[in-house]
Each structure stands twice: as structure tokens, then as C-alpha cells.
């Protein structure tokens, strides 16, 4: 099916894109060569061509960055953009009232990928960023996505390894299974100190027009008893986003009919 | 320098990415083939390889979309992200008070590219969207970026063509030159009905740590006399973003020393 040539060029381009990180968004050709393991001449040629397509740009000091053109192409037609756009006014509303961090995550490659984050100066510690990731078992968003995700993903997650960030992280499969059933039953995840002892995450599911869970809306607040008050705020906002996406009402049948509709991961 | 093979594969991949639009974010292989002018077999092979790298994804109904992985790679290391992140709290503040549309634009390829937009249901008509574009001469953000942009860009813009969206659009070079001088002198652009008769844009420059204009922060409100009240709001927010980016104070020297510092486009 594929030519050796085509595969090889594309794989190299993927490696070049992967070389750029939030910590180091600007690299020289020799740095890119070192990180990708590609020969300097190959790197130089591919970078030049990516620059000609505006997929990369070059600083005055010859450092290379991700170009606006590729950002534009993938953002304007991104299927995530419709969920993110529907969620923004609700997230802003939550952010105005609760402060701290408000974020929107989706399932991608067995992790939570954060599409959006609103935060405040001096807010509680948080490890997410836009286009950042967290494992499913440790974060409130991840637990919501895992609880409502495909059964095989849940089984793979339960099979571990389950990294323990704090003594509170649910790193035991039986405990995780019970938490997932609870998330489905109560309609949200409540996670005191799972990722960091001082932070508490509350997340609720966002559903699309077929009633499928497509994202998790979460708030990260200080890990104290006052955090309970954000639960209805987060749930209401997530419900609002779902309505904006055209989800059928009533969404929250799991209150009445239990977790069986979500398929089989009860303990 | 470049092999014919490598160039051709990359150019084809660029064409495939360009086939996806906000209106049609999901396409079949034959639709992609038709839009790119690539042979169906070539399209099918390249799509399969892009899917294997998660740069594209395939629905259950075999339609192809932009993948999360490429969005993640370009977003996490995008140089635009730091400006956008610095601007968000200020934009949210403006949005809370003014409502309507608040947007952040940067100069790209002789146009304004919008990085971010906050809007409200029922807000005044606006043609921008995230990762959307507008010409420089017609939009308030564009006029700010053009007024502070490189002299050769300004000369090219003045050489036209200058599309007239409404009778108010500055489509005459002499008038546009005068408006740009005014934008530099007063520190903002005020654009009643330039893009649509019922909308008015107000934009102010965002400067980086070297004092260079890197973005324009704008508000789009109904085209009436009350719009004057948003000028200080937009200017203050743009100043705040610039401070957050580490711009040296005082930024607004053009109030005292005139447009000459911005280089030569006064009439």
C-alpha cells in the first residue's frame, strides 16, 4: 500500500514536530537533528521545506518554531473546536464564580488531553495546561472519561500500571473500579488530593447530540471541605455545555437506572 | 537541496490538510481526492499513513477528520500560545463587562489571523472565528497591526486591492494612510461599520518584552454612539496584556513624540 519513500518522509516530519515542546518551542536545526536522530542534512532539507509551506518558521537568529499556518489549518477544522467553543461561555461563567482552574478535557490515546484551561494568578497548584495530558486514573477529568469510556479501555487502565502521585491516588485496581462505578452513579468525580495533596478536582461529563460522553468539564480548587460547594456548579455547567451540543434530555438516567447502561465495569 | 520525492509528499500532505474547512471538517477519501486534485490511490495511501500517525482520524462511517495528535503537537509548542495565554484573563474581564465579541489577532501572511474569540449569544454580527482571517485594511485589529507593522507591508497594503465591504470601509489609499497615522497617534483603531454596517470594532496594540506590537486586542460592538465607552476598556486591557508579556513602560510614547518612531507612513 505505502511506498517506502512516502512513509519515511512523513515519519520524519512527525518526528520533527514532536521535537518542539512547551519548554523549548524554538530549536536550531542541529538541536532538531539531535532530538529526532535524523541526519543534519536531512533535517535541514525537511525544515527548509516545512518553512516553505509555513508549517515551521525561522527567527532572525535562525531558530525554528512551529508556524502559524499549520496551527491555523488544524485549529480551524478541528472537531474538538466545536466542543471547546460550546464549552467556553459556561467555563467562563464557572471561572467568574469559582476562580482557580476550570478546564476541559477529552479522551485521547488512553489519557486526558486538555483542550482548554482558564486559570487565575495565585490559584491552587495544577499540572494541566492547554494541549497537556494527565493519566486517566489520577485526574477528575480522566475518571469521568474512563467511567463513561469503552469497556476495553477501562480494562486496560485497571490492568495498570497505576502511578501513585500522592497517598490518595487510586492506584489499586479494586479501589479504582469502585470509584468509576461511583462516578457513573453520582454523575461526577470528586478527587481530593489525587494528583497533588493541596488540590482537589471536581469533574462532570459533557455529552454530544447522541448522548455520548465526549469531554469532561473540571474545576481544580484547594483541597478542603469548602470544595463540596463547587459540585453543583460544575455539574450544571457540564449539563449546559451538553445541552448546547444538542444532547437529548434527560441525560442523567444513571441516577435512576444505575451503571448498567454504561456497560459492565461495576465491581 | 530537496529531493523531488520529499517535496512532493510534503506538498501533497499540505494540500490534504487544506482540504478540511470549518464548514466541512469531515471528508471521505474521494472528497479529499477531488478537492486536492490528487489521484484517489495516492490520497488513500497518504490518508492511511496520516491516520497511522494520528494526524488524521477516521469515523465509524469512514469519514476523515483532523486528528488530535497534530492539534496537540502544534498547540503545545505554538509561540502564539504564550500571547494567547497572557491575554485570556484580560479578554475575559473585557468580555464580562462589555459582552459582545472580544478577540485577539496577529499578523500572518498579510492578513489578521484570529487566535482567540470570546462571544455571547445574540451579540452583534461578527465575521471572525478562531483561526479565521480578515484583511488588514478593513478590520480594527488589522489596522492596528498594519499601523505598527513593517513599512513594506504597509506599502503593499496601500497598493491594494482594497476590498470595500461597506461604504465606510477605507478602500482609498490616501484615506487608509491617514487612518493608519491616526491609529498610531491615538493608540487605538476605531472602526464604525468597516466590515458590516451594524458592527463597530475597537482595537489596541499588544506589545512584547521588546516593546514590539505582536497582537491586537479588539472588541466588536453595535455601531452606535455608545461604542466610545469601550475605547478605554480595550486600551487598558491591551496595556495589561503587554505588561504581562513584560513590555517596557512607558509604552505609549506615540502620544508625545508622534508617529515618527513607528516609521514613516504618515501622509
Report what the structure shows.
Two copies of one chain form a homodimer. Chain A has 267 residues and is α+β, with helices and mostly antiparallel strands. Chain A has two domains: 9-67, Arc Repressor Mutant, subunit A (Orthogonal Bundle), CATH 1.10.10.10; 79-255, Beta-Lactamase (2-Layer Sandwich), CATH 3.30.450. The first copy, chain A, has helices at residues 4-19, 29-36, 40-52, 68-76, 79-98, 140-147, 151-158, 173-186, 230-244, 254-257, and strands at 56-58, 64-66, 101-108, 111-118, 133-135, 189-192, 199-207, 213-222. In chain A, the strands form two sheets. In chain A, strands 5-4-3-8-7-6 form a six-stranded antiparallel sheet, sandwiched between helices. Chain A has a two-stranded antiparallel sheet with strand order 1-2. The radius of gyration of chain A is 21 Å and the shape is globular. Mean pLDDT of chain A is 86; it is low at 1-7 and 251-267.
How many separate domains make up the residues of chain A?
Answer: 2
Number of helices of chain A: 10
Order of strands across the main sheet of chain A? 5-4-3-8-7-6
In whole angstroms, the N-to-C terminal distance of chain A is 45 Å
Helix and strand string of chain A, N-terminal first?
HHHEEHHEEEHHHEEEHH
Main sheet summary of chain A: 6 strands, antiparallel
Helix content of chain A: 40-55%
Q: How would you describe the shape of chain A?
A: globular
| CATH class (first level) name of the largest domain in chain A | Alpha Beta
Taking pLDDT < 50 over at least 5 consecutive residues as the criterion, the unreliable ranges of chain A are 1-7, 251-267
Q: What's the oligomerization state?
A: homodimer
Fourth CATH level, the homologous superfamily of the largest domain in chain A: GAF domain
Question: So, CATH architecture of the largest domain in chain A?
Answer: 2-Layer Sandwich
β-strand number of chain A: 8
Amino acid at each position: 500500500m505505502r511506498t517506502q519513500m512516502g512513509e519515511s518522509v512523513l515519519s520524519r516530519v512527525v518526528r520533527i514536530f514532536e521535537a518542539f515542546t512547551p519548554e523549548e518551542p524554538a530549536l536550531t536545526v542541529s538541536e532538531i537533528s539531535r532530538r529526532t536522530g535524523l541526519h543534519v542534512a536531512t533535517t535541514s532539507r525537511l525544515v527548509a521545506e516545512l518553512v516553505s509551506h509555513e508549517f515551521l518558521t525561522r527567527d532572525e537568529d535562525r531558530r525554528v518554531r512551529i508556524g502559524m499556518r499549520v496551527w491555523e489549518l488544524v485549529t480551524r477544522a478541528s472537531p474538538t473546536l466545536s466542543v471547546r467553543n460550546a464549552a467556553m461561555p459556561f467555563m467562563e461563567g464557572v471561572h467568574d464564580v469559582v476562580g482557580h482552574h476550570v478546564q476541559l478535557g477529552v479522551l485521547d490515546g488512553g489519557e486526558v488531553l486538555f483542550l482548554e484551561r482558564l486559570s487565575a494568578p495565585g490559584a491552587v497548584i495544577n499540572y494541566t495546561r492547554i494541549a497537556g495530558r494527565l493519566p486517566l486514573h489520577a485526574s477528575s477529568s480522566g475518571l469521568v472519561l474512563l467511567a463513561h469510556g469503552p469497556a476495553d479501555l477501562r480494562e486496560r487502565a485497571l490492568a495498570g500500571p497505576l502511578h501513585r502521585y500522592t497517598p490518595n491516588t487510586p492506584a489499586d485496581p479494586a479501589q479504582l473500579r469502585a470509584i468509576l462505578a461511583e462516578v457513573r452513579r453520582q454523575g461526577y468525580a470528586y478527587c481530593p488530593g489525587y494528583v497533588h495533596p493541596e488540590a482537589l478536582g471536581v469533574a462532570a461529563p459533557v455529552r454530544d447530540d447522541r448522548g455520548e460522553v465526549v469531554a469532561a468539564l473540571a474545576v481544580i480548587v484547594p483541597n478542603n471541605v469548602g470544595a463540596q460547594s463547587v459540585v453543583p456548579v460544575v455539574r450544571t455547567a457540564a449539563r449546559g455545555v451538553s445541552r448546547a451540543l444538542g444532547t437529548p434530555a434527560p441525560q442523567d438516567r444513571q441516577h435512576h437506572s444505575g451503571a448498567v447502561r454504561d456497560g459492565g465495569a461495576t465491581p
